[in-house]
């Protein structure tokens, strides 16, 4: 049993030795990998020994957490220590981004059910799991290096997140890590991590200009990003070819569709009773761990799922006898069909984008990673659809993300040099009213300048923009304040907007524009003599306060800062709703 709390101290800034610890926080399974960055030839190593695993080694454990005492949400069991037959919390990761659209072919949403189970906020439950798995990783690493060396190492943490996640969900993941006491932590997009590992480890020839698709099909999400090899020496460098795409078509959907198939087989009334039995849990476990992994598309193959002691009425025609369902390959094909179709469409779209954006370039292949990505039937379906492109499943596809996340902090190995923006990002600005451009838009009277203004969108980042890693983009702002102002008047709020339509509109009103976050800029520590004093047409004195909001674009997160007169000043805090 684990108590919620802080893991061991992780930061020793006085040393140049660095230990990188990466976590693939998955919907169904999670893993940890690490490396010592200061070694001459750093090797990425996976944690394979886990509490409750009973001597079995594996690079991942189930993302399960259980709070046995309803009156004490600080005590919990996690991972392999949790019995799969208990009423466990499954899919807490998805609760960090409940805005993701659920496919129509899934009857019951996992997220609403999981939210009802949580004893506290999703971020806090995620923090419990993240803190526990990191704490265990640190104890495992301490077993393989001298204590003195381990104690002087700077611990740098990397956490992977789906590329399709909202910025609010990525921020929530970062908050969960901080709540768990994990710092300093960086985020990396899951397909980006998979690309780094795949390109670094695969033993085949690459040429500059070659392109490939990474399809990360996991338990909850499916992420796709296309990359181009921009350099091979002295370091392998990759850049995104087109904006990433994805969906909620992960393998948990197979479990939900299997449950629907059982409901159709036995009827609604008997299914409601069955769900409350241990036999149902054993049947679901059999489907999860054996049947769906074994399916290879053979329609003549038979699979047997037992529901022990469930007292189900026999249905020989449907294949149900003695609480055992004899499933055919056709049954499984029907269960897989909509999810596979979604993923096929996503792959086809990425290949189309590569050919449009890089006509004539060689497409080296489609790389399937993640738990669902290792499924043989999924691979055969994609290969059949694209016979001219090789579909590959790296041998360690399941651990590709966590190993690539560790590699991302080793720039001498491989790195992503640019990304392709998946959204438009911008802010509202009050420009001088134009009767043609701003027809139908409410006017705002500017008493200092003596004319009307209209709020218009200024898009500083557009879909498809090639964004260099760590590129800094400045959003210029100005505010007018009275000379006799209160200090709190220098705390400004600005809304960062986003739009996923191909063409971003000029105005916010009535358009497909959504708030990304509210940026709170605090300029109270800026000397007042640096402000520009002016007299308006109304005769009143006021200050024009000009400043720049600076966005630095990382792998999976935007970092915000503030500059005044070209120098760092003040603070900026994003608030997500």
UniProtKB/TrEMBL annotation:
Q: Does the keyword field hold Nucleotide-binding? A: yes
The protein's name: Uncharacterized protein
- SUPFAM superfamilies per the UniProt record, alphabetical: Actin-like ATPase domain
Keyword Cell membrane listed? The answer is no
- Gene Ontology MF terms: ATP binding; ATP-dependent protein folding chaperone
| UniProt xrefs under PANTHER family | ALPHA KINASE/ELONGATION FACTOR 2 KINASE (PTHR14187), FAMILY CHAPERONE, PUTATIVE (AFU_ORTHOLOGUE AFUA_7G08575)-RELATED (PTHR14187:SF82)
Signal peptide positions are none
Annotated keywords: ATP-binding, Nucleotide-binding
